[in-house]
Amino acid sequence: MSEIVVRDLGVRAMPEVWAEMQRFTEERGAGTADQIWFVEHPPVFTLGLNADRAHLLDPGDIPVVQTDRGGQVTYHGPGQLVAYVLVELKRRGFNVRSLVQALESAVIDAAAGFGVEAYARRDAPGVYVGGRKLAAIGLRVRRGCSYHGLAVNVNMDLEPFARIHPCGFADLEVTQLKDLCGLDTPAQFRAAFAPRLLVRLDRD
């Protein structure tokens, strides 16, 4: 299987990274290597393409960005690991559903390495622990290629999630790895998660 380029973008504003993902996807050709971008965002609420704004309860001073991904509303902030997955689906043997499952499985595998028993739900994409959401997933596919991806709560201020219905569910609580297993930084989880994600994306 062809190489996947992994990039660490540090802390970057969500709108500028989104614009870069769109540009990368529009300009890529048959020989362009697939990429994974790891990033943390300053506080921001994002809405999916067909999201119901009624799920955005009280954003306050946190910016709200309407995006072109799937899904409803979520929150990004410092201490959350965001992984943007820019892959050509046909090349890797995926459809949208199987790509979502690969992302979920990589999070579940990595969390297990820290003693956290996580799982996926068929009715609501993402990764959960004890009924609470640990990771959110939202993708866009254009020209046969994916962008956007997933966000894993590591060690962050969870209060802004109370200002929304996370992923469109009024009664959904969220959790994070700091509370589940004591992880302090997204980099700690990324070190375990990145190799597992690369394995899940290589279907040969």
Question: Could you walk me through the main structural features you see in this protein, from its secondary elements to its overall organization?
Answer:
With 204 residues, the protein is α+β, with helices and mostly antiparallel strands. The chain has one domain: 2-Layer Sandwich (BirA Bifunctional Protein, domain 2), CATH 3.30.930. The chain has five helices and ten strands, in the order βαβββββααββββαα. Strands 1-2-6-10-9-8-7 form a seven-stranded mixed β-sheet, sandwiched between helices. Strands 4-3-5 form a three-stranded mixed β-sheet, with no helix packed on it. Strand 8 and strand 9 form a beta hairpin.
Give descriptors for this structure:
3-stranded mixed beta sheet; 7-stranded mixed beta sheet; single chain; 204 residues; BirA Bifunctional Protein, domain 2; alpha+beta; 5 helices
Strand and helix map with partners:
Blueprint: E1 4-11, H1 14-27, E2 34-40, E3 44-47, E4 64-66, E5 73-76, E6 80-86, H2 89-92, H3 96-112, E7 119-120, E8 127-129, E9 132-142, E10 145-153, H4 177-181, H5 186-201
Parallel strand pairs: 1-2, 3-4
Antiparallel strand pairs: 2-6, 3-5, 6-10, 7-8, 8-9, 9-10
Helix pairs in contact: 3-5
